[in-house]
């Protein structure tokens, strides 16, 4: 199909596949291997560990800081995701389905925000949060995460919503349902895959953030894992605790990788929605 | 009928209200606030010296070498990484599009760099290039302390960025590839066009909107590069970018006035990039950018 010579084609694209997989996996294998090295072998400059040790994992989980940060990361990312997807769903439904002045402006405004560098508002937010007492709290991170993820959620959801069989919605409304009832009983179940896709991408965004996390938190109260890893200090001030950093990295990478591998199709559809559909 | 229309209108606004409020409070208001703060001498370490000084903050930034150096670094990183990503993204997109077996596995592994936390990716590559821990020197037979010199540090930073974001670029390009009609390729093949000619004469023109959207996204994203540089060099060895400069002035030095001015200048930079893209390629962008 792709090449005149089928065998040649198979070999060609098969090689391509192998290269792509090696490319994607190399740093992941490397950080896993670092996390499993014994501390005495850390400087051996080898890619794979000579002996496998789980010592690093034991240490990070027996310490106070990492479990607290993990809890913060999970809680903050999950709540931000729920909020962003709920608000995004309302807005996307209105933009796609309802006639009202200003809907184009809202979509354009959301898209403009998506392009927006967060460093621009980090200072003002820092100062605002300091005065209203949101500095170093969950809510102080949830608000910016939710907001910065909203454009993504609105965009993905409205792209999906445009493709949905809306006749069912019309039918419900002809049968006497109000727009709100039609929304809750007909649209929400139909829209589940889109909502789920948006949720995964928003979660990855919140899980990944570093700039807000280091600027708007200072203690275990709300500091998330990326921020904690960056400032990990080992027993000695002069040496980076590489093994511990690697172990912590693996712990926060694995769950997201599993989600991505399972929901690969949805994620590809979500990332490319709107960007290219003509 | 009129009643129904006004109900629909009210519901529309009601449903959008929470999202719009959040966007206004967390993005629009802080920008205006930054604009306002940037007109003051305002250092949190010396709060009593707060005074309105007009555009003096901008003057001192725009006449300082630090700003232009950081802007230069940011532009270098942006231009090099986005062009290499486009160059690598194409073959990657073709492989993902054409692959006959392991399709699921290949597409899933390609998403791994996208899903990995930037901080983790930056650390992984930092350790890989570390002279005592890393395997790169052993592999290349060099004894280089990569992150202690400007250009070799740039090399590591750019490599990390490319590794992390090429898959995203490739996904957008792949979505563009699916728009190319198969018949057209077949027809060109029958007419004797070779693979390269088919690519340049047919595939690229059809994909132009997708390419532009991907490049615009990545350019704006690369322009605000922060995480990788922070983790790998903290801006040392002359690798500071505008985002790091903003962060350092604001959060580390607690100089709200100067920091806000840096923020506003970064914002203007992003606006200029967007305007250039829209002016330069406006027609094809709206054609490809609007999910209609």
Automatic annotation (TrEMBL), chain A:
Domain of life the protein comes from: Bacteria
Lineage of the species this protein comes from: Bacteria, Pseudomonadati, Pseudomonadota, Betaproteobacteria, Nitrosomonadales
Membrane spanning stretches: 12-32, 70-93, 105-126, 138-161, 182-207, 244-263
Gene3D superfamilies listed in its UniProt record: MetI-like
PROSITE patterns named in the record: ABC_TM1
CDD domains cross-referenced by the UniProt entry: TM_PBP2
Domain ABC transmembrane type-1: 70-263
Protein name: Multiple sugar transport system permease protein
Major subcellular location class: membrane
Protein keywords: Cell membrane, Membrane, Sugar transport, Transmembrane, Transmembrane helix, Transport
PANTHER family per record: INNER MEMBRANE ABC TRANSPORTER PERMEASE PROTEIN YCJP, MALTOSE TRANSPORT SYSTEM PERMEASE-RELATED
UniProt-annotated location(s): Cell membrane
Family from the record: Belongs to the binding-protein-dependent transport system permease family.
Any one annotated GO CC term: plasma membrane
Automatic annotation (TrEMBL), chain B:
Annotated family: Belongs to the binding-protein-dependent transport system permease family.
Presence of keyword Transport: yes
UniProt name for this protein: Multiple sugar transport system permease protein
A Pfam family that the UniProt record links to this protein: BPD_transp_1
TM regions (residue ranges): 12-36, 75-96, 108-128, 153-179, 199-217, 250-278
Entry's localization field: Cell membrane
Domain ABC transmembrane type-1: from-to ranges: 71-277
GO annotation (BP), single: transmembrane transport
PANTHER family given in the database record: BLR7065 PROTEIN, INTEGRAL MEMBRANE SUGAR TRANSPORT PROTEIN
Superkingdom field: Bacteria
Recorded coiled-coil stretches: none
Organism field: Nitrosomonas communis
Major place of residence: membrane
